[in-house]
Amino acid sequence: xxxxxxxxxxxxxxxxxxxxxxxxxxxxxxxxxxxxxxxxxxxxxxxxxxxxxxxxxxxxxxxxxxxxxxxxxxxxxxxxxxxxxxxxxxxxxxxxxxxxxxxxxxxxxxxxxxxxxxxxxxxxxxxxxxxxxxxxxxxxxxxxxxxxxxxxxxxxxxxxxxxxxxx
Length: 167
Ligand SMILES: [Zn+2]
Ligand SMILES: [Zn+2]
Known about the structure:
It is a single chain. By secondary structure, the protein is of the alpha+beta class. It has one domain (about 10-165). It contains five helices and six strands. β5 and β6 (about 100) form a beta hairpin. The mean pLDDT is about 75. The structure holds zinc ion (ZN) (2 copies).
């Protein structure tokens, strides 16, 4: 598989239960297949650190870049989305397969911005609850696929945010 950002071949790496494609020869970007993202939930703290050791390269990103899903045929353009209202990190998602591309350093930024002082943490926790709760609620009436995506997103948040935020 080729990196959607720089076109280099990506290497499959296994971190505990997760398989992730890493752009080791090029930009250092990370690709998570949909099912792999869901399994992030099973990662322990130490394993998460292992994941963070990947993707330390320099981002090749330019605003004008149009990236396509490296998995889908025919390919879909990846869509940028904010990881979380309080985490100003954009990740890219494929509307076809729901795989996610993270530029180098983005996983680390997501982690870092989630070790805030007490009051910021409080606000973030509230938003997290409202957002994930509302999202799941609004998807209850939609298709199975969309509901699955909502579940996946909440798993992703849970795995990257501190455990004490969950409830
Ligand atoms: Zn790359
Ligand atoms: Zn795709």
